[in-house]
Amino acid sequence: MNILIIGNSGAGTAAIESIRKHDRQSSIIQLSDEAQPLYSRCLLSYYLAGSIDKEKLLYREEEFHKEMGVELHTGPGFRVVELNAAQRRVVCDNGRTFNYDRILIAVGASAKLPDGMPNDKGIFVLRNLADVEAIKENIRDADAKRAVVFGGGLIGVKAAVALNMCGLRTTMVVSSKQVLSQVLDYAAGQIIAGQLRENNIEILQPAGITEIISRDNRLKGVKTDRGQVLDCDILIVAKGVTPNIQLAQAAGVAVRRGIVTDSTMQTDHENIFAAGDVAEAFDIAIEDYTVNALWTCAVQQGRIAGLNIIGKKTDYNGAIGMNSLNVCDVSIISFGVTSPKEESKYKTLVLNQPERNVYKKIVIDSKSHIKGIILLGKIDNAGVLLSLIQRKADVSSFEDELLSDRFNYGTLLKYGGEKELGRYYNTGG
Q: CA 101 → CA 19, 27, 90, 411, distances in Å?
């Protein structure tokens, strides 16, 4: 069997490892327009900050593809521009064609750019290694002193912290009323905003950018919708990402926000699979299909896709949109539904101690099932709480103990006995 994988990141790598664990005979060809060695996107902001060396970015050893028997084609020219589902063939922008029996689309997502954003020097996104190298070069060559980050989500916060660690005076321009609005609720967001400000990162919110100020195609500053002019040498636009569905859509593969997949990561075409940031897959917490643009989800989906590509029928039980990060020495873990739109349908347990940089929130539905969690500052019992979500456990008998720092598997033993505890251990929590 001829297997083709488009994309060379977490999902594609997991698929290769999954395939080769059971099948050393099928040929695997992998295509990517990114010339860099296989690296972890999760660590890019740390590399930008200078906290880690470039070598620490490597996700697998340099001999990985050779050892796995993968024919790898990367760099300019190997961007797939056409997928012909009927003929089972793809065309790259250098004109080369590759045929397949089964194909995995793992092309990820691209950074969103506001309409009309110019291509001036000094304006960047933070999506791949090439972006980071360009930012680092600009800091050196332009002797940059000031930076603006447009966006207050995960990438925006990570970018602001990294630029601040590089010695740049950094301002965040945030459209919403809080930072990390897709990850935290307002109260938790205020704690993190306070920590950012304590580390000399300015935050303007709610605010937007209405004008880019340039001279000779070189960024000089930005103007906000408050009328403020912020001088800057670097602008990082961090307004989220968009799944790269264009290739699949043009080939007639079903798409919504992402490429539509079933429980095996197969699309509506029997020989075409999708995984990672480009795919819509089942989410346990919301009990629906969505795009979870997270590394851990991409790896899980890639593994499942790989098994099903070689005929080992395996269902993807779904993931939870889980975020884990550290901001200015404050640890954060959040997953599931953290800010329910219909609050009357949920019970919310909250522990808020901003003076200690501690915040805990647990969202419980009408069936006494945990649907979402925020842990800030105190994250030790994240594993057991995650296992409760995965098992759809009835937590009514020990609900009052969920916010305690002492809540652990021992607590479950007290309420459920050894047999019940074993069920929770088996979730991998």
A: 14, 10, 11, 51
% residues pLDDT > 90 (the chain): 83
Q: Nearest-5° angle of CA 222, CA 47, CA 232?
A: 15
Query: Which of the two residues, 82 and 342, has the higher pLDDT score?
Result: 82
Would you kindly state where each structural domain of the chain is located, as residue ranges? 2-110+241-309, 123-237, 337-425
Cα-based distances in Å from 355 to 216, 329, 352, 379: 48, 15, 9, 17
Taking alpha carbons only, the member of 104, 96, 99 closest to residue 88 is 99
Q: Is the pLDDT of residue 421 over 90?
A: no
pLDDT, tens digit (0-9, with 9 covering 90-100), for 49-84: 999 999 999 999 989 999 999 999 999 999 999 999
Residue 202 · residue 170 · CB < 8 Å: yes
* 1.20.58.480, 3.30.450.20, 3.50.50.60, 3.40.50.300: CATH of 2-110+241-309: 3.50.50.60
The closest of 233, 156, 223, 236 to 196, measured between CA atoms, is 156
Taking the CB of residue 177, how many other CB atoms lie within 10 A of it? Answer: 12
pLDDT tier, 414 (very low <50, low <70, confident <90, very high otherwise): low
